[in-house]
Amino acid sequence: MRASTCDSLSRLSIVWLRRRCIKSVGILKLNKGNKIMGVPMQRPLWSGQIQISLVAFGVKIFPAVEARSEIHFHQLSRATGERVHHRKVVGDAAADGNPIEKDDIVKGYEYSKGEYVAIEPSEIENLRIPSNHTLAVTQFVDLDEVRPEYFEKPYFIVPVDDNQAEAFSVVRKALQATHKAAIGKIAFGGREHLIALSAPWDAKSDTAANRGMMGYTLRYADELRDSAEYFAEIKSKNVDADQLSLARELIQRKTAKFAADKFHDEYEAALKELVEAKVKHLPLPKDEPVRRSAKVINLMDALRKSIKSGDADADKSSTPKSAKAKSMKNKLGPRLVKPVAKSKSTRTRKSA
């Protein structure tokens, strides 16, 4: 049992390391000896041309997001603890069916009950659709005009080689200067996507993170449900001016710059804690139910208390810092002060 436990923890560590070893110069992975080695950048999701009127240049498109989950589950038999395996078979009855290899499976469309037409992968690849290889820009828009619910996934766009970099850079710079996004369609992943191309969000400096373009796949209008079907039952209310004023003050006090790196998946951390507890035969962590007060507080009182609570938190956070700084200053004693050398200020940014 102890050996298997160590093996399980070792595998978890390897998975964690493999998913963390992503560098800007490419992808780092583990070889068979569990050693890290550098490999070229991942394969592009799509390669082709961006065409704007008579201007065309080659690009490669890469996904800008990746799954960060460190915990992956298998299916087990509750009775025996053995792993459950799935197999693909030919026939209506799975128990009596004959196993079939992956290479012998093709897609099939049921055009009538029990009647299918087989579609080969090569036939799908050769579909007559221009966006398979060319992203034709049909119009330009302000990004602010595209409502958030239409955005789907982000992508990185780079020129295919140095020969395409000039046209690529000119278009990127023009999009940045005009604060516009180019709209077109692109085919990958078994469907044609609407996509918006733009300069990086804050491409003011010529850093490695700003030299490419961003692509955002968009949802089609008919993919979004009608909000009226869900909001129609909400009764219209007259908003009290004092309550509105307090609500605006509360929002103002809690407003801060969005920093994505301050937010983490706590569900993933809790799941990992559960797994480690079971592996080490420790008591299982449990969620503590939130106690709800039986006393009903009206909205005005809740807003006032929220604002007062924010003031108290601000006082607590500011007082220790100043006291600590003063204490440290007294402990340091006299110091030699060196003149600050004059140098050009440099800015460093994190890639989006």
Give, in order, the helices and strands.
HEEEEEEEEEHEEHEEEHHHH
Please state the overall shape, judged from the principal axes of the Cα atoms: extended
Structural class: alpha+beta
> How big a fraction of the residues is strand?
15-25%
Radius of gyration: 29 Å
Name the CATH architecture of the domain at 43-65 and 98-225.
Beta Barrel
Helix content: 25-40%
CATH T-level fold name of the domain at 43-65 and 98-225: Ku70, Chain: A, Domain 2
- Per DSSP E runs of 2 or more residues, the count of β-strands stands at 14
Please summarize what this structure is:
The chain has 352 residues and is an alpha+beta fold. The chain has helices at residues 2-20, 121-125, 162-178, 228-231, 241-253, 266-279, 299-332; strands at 22-23, 26-30, 36-39, 46-52, 55-63, 89-90, 98-99, 107-112, 115-119, 134-142, 151-159, 180-188, 191-198, 213-218. Among the domains are: 1-42, no CATH class; 43-65 and 98-225, Ku70, Chain: A, Domain 2 (Beta Barrel), CATH 2.40.290.10.
